[in-house]
Specification:
Keywords: Signal. The protein is α/β, with parallel strands linked by helices. It folds into two domains: 167 residues, D-Maltodextrin-Binding Protein, domain 2; 127 residues, Glycine betaine-binding periplasmic protein, domain 2 (D-Maltodextrin-Binding Protein, domain 2), CATH 3.40.190.100. 47% of the residues lie in helices and 17% in strands. The chain contains 16 helices and ten strands. Strands 3-10-4 form a three-stranded antiparallel sheet, sandwiched between helices. A three-stranded antiparallel sheet has the order 8-5-9. β6, α7 and β7 form a beta-alpha-beta unit. α2 packs across α14, α2 crosses α16 and α3 runs parallel beside α4. The longest helix is centred in the first third of the chain and has 18 residues. It is globular, with a radius of gyration of 22 Å. The N terminus is likely disordered.
């Protein structure tokens, strides 16, 4: 029933013409990346640019490396709504220096978040678990699933870049000396499933995870304070390297998650560009939206309609009143 209702809504919306006042926006291509948060933002951008700014906005398939390369070399697509820029920093900087692309604000205003986490219900019972010294002093609260004489730390799946960073911090924090052993979850789904299972049974859990994600939207987790502060330079030079020998513990720095646009779009459509620069989500906001997508098995298009209808308090802050009125009329 829900999908039929949204399908009818989308058919109605497709019949609503874009504003005749196009502000010189013209044709705009938007990368629809192959993960939920990026697809949601791409669909939001398409709807707002089309109905609020009169753009002829089109979604095109995208992924981090090929999209970034295409934008730099070919000038298309016009917009990559969610770009984890540290993964391609050198190439992006070259594109900026050559006047081909432009950063247009933060997709996630707090940056991507990583860390070691424990469930909130454990913190409620044992407040000392907020810090790594408290976790180490209470290792017996985290029994290993295969050997209760050891404590379990759920690491990042093998082969992922976060396996390197989580294991380097595990070593630097001397967690093995406190009785912890790394549990390989096997996959991203396995890691998420271990949190879900622990929460359903209110069992102990300690390990690596990141945000924004549906998991942290559905399950209230608390990030453990390493009591070290954040050493960005050491993180980049050592913690991220599989050849890091003399690692020292550091909290994870926020990852830059930006919107990248072509310089051509930035110059051609300044009012639409102003929207892109203003549009951004907190991690809590996106965590909740991703949890809704998972619970409702919704794709980016359905989730976009849910967002625009039910979260007017967020998106109306991104656009002028007259543009907000056009979008509301389209809804």
């Amino acid at each position: 029933m829900y999908k039929r209702l949204l399908s009818a809504t989308l058919l109605t919306l497709s019949a609503v013409p874009a504003s005749a006042d196009d502000h010189g926006c013209g044709n705009v291509t938007i990368a629809d990346m192959n993960w939920n948060s990026a697809s949601l933002i791409a669909n939001i951008d398409q709807f707002i640019l089309e109905h609020g700014y009169g753009c002829d906005a089109e979604l095109v398939p995208g992924d981090t490396m090929p999209t970034g390369t295409s934008m730099i070399e070919k000038g298309e697509p016009d917009i990559a709504p969610e770009f984890w820029s540290n993964s391609m920093r050198e190439g992006l900087q070259r594109g900026i220096d050559e006047g081909r692309i432009h950063y247009a604000g933060q997709a996630f205003v707090e940056g991507g978040e990583e860390g070691f986490w424990v469930p909130k219900y454990m913190i409620d019972q044992h407040p000392e678990l907020k810090t790594i010294s408290g976790v180490k002093a209470n290792a017996d609260l985290f029994p290993h699933p295969e050997d209760p004489s050891k404590a379990a730390f759920y690491g990042c799946p093998a082969g992922w870049s976060c396996q390197i960073t989580s294991e380097n911090n595990f070593k630097a924090l001397d967690l093995a000396d406190s009785g912890f052993e790394i549990v390989d979850p096997g996959s991203g789904a396995g890691l998420a499933g271990s949190i879900a299972k622990a929460y359903e049974r209110e069992e102990a859990w300690f390990g690596y995870y990141w945000a924004p994600t549906a998991v942290l939207g559905k399950y209230e987790m608390v990030k453990v304070d390493f009591e070290t502060g954040t050493d960005v330079e050491h993180y980049k030079s050592c913690i991220t390297s599989d050849e890091c020998i003399t690692s020292k513990a550091t909290m994870y720095p926020a990852a830059d998650v930006e919107t990248v646009v072509t310089e051509r779009f930035a110059k051609r459509a300044p009012e639409a560009m102003a929207y892109i620069e203003n549009r951004g989500f907190t991690n809590d906001q996106m965590n909740g939206l991703l949890a809704w997508m998972e619970d409702n098995q919704a794709d980016g298009e359905y989730a976009m309609i849910n967002f625009l209808i039910n979260h007017e308090d967020i998106w109306t802050q991104w656009v002028p009143n007259e543009v907000a009125s056009k979008i509301k009329d389209a809804l």
